[in-house]
Amino acid sequence: MDQSKRQPRKLGWRFALLALALALLISGLVRALWLDVYYIPSASMEPLFGAGDRILVSRTDFQSGPVRRGDVVVFDGRGTFAPLNSGNGPVQDAAAAAGHWLGITGSDTTYIKRVIGLPGDHVVCCDDRQRLTVNGQALEEPYLYSGDVASKQKFSVIVPAGRLWLLGDHRSMSADSRSLLGAPGGGMVPLDRVIGRPVQIIWPLDRFAAVPRPAETSTTTKDGQ
User: Fold this and answer.
1) Which fold has domain 34-220?
2) Rounded to a whole number, what is the distance in angstroms from the first to the last CA of the chain?
3) Per-residue tens of pLDDT for the chain, all 225 residues
């Protein structure tokens, strides 16, 4: 009789373990194929993302169309950005640490930045009004952190085929493609290293909001026309 009482309890534990294993499998598939959660540890993408934000990233958004100038992308920085050290010095990077659904664990090789230069673009800092120019035309950047200029570091780069030139929105707090101009690859990130696009801030709750994909960043002629 004692044995018959213990049997349902054993079945209950087995069912719970099976349900947990199935939930983990489904979660893993979703994260691998469609959505994942990332943690923002620094201020270099302010005002769009703040330090401590957890964001939901879609892995499929760019399958329906190419990456555009102005897009914010999460990417694997191995071989390009990964040498950047966010732990020392006054300039911080915007590494988006890939983690569990709660954004607890981190990765030193995953980053989030904005696309400024597409393959073939000639990106220059800066014109006489302190604006970046792309292919000779001034770049409109309404997303810049208030009070920041487009860049205090001068540069002139031509983006190779299959690569992207990426900057943070909080330029004075961002280590990005500019920081790697003298390194192999020059801070140019391969398109196939793009993981996805942030689509939702999920934490903290007072910042819970969708992240719409911006229109392609516009350019104007140097005289403002």
Assistant:
1) Umud Fragment, subunit A (2.10.109)
2) 89
3) 445 555 555 566 665 565 555 544 444 444 444 688 888 989 999 999 999 999 999 999 888 789 999 999 999 998 888 866 543 222 223 333 334 434 444 467 889 999 999 999 999 999 999 999 999 999 999 999 999 999 999 999 999 999 999 999 999 999 999 999 988 888 999 999 999 999 999 999 999 999 999 887 766 655 454
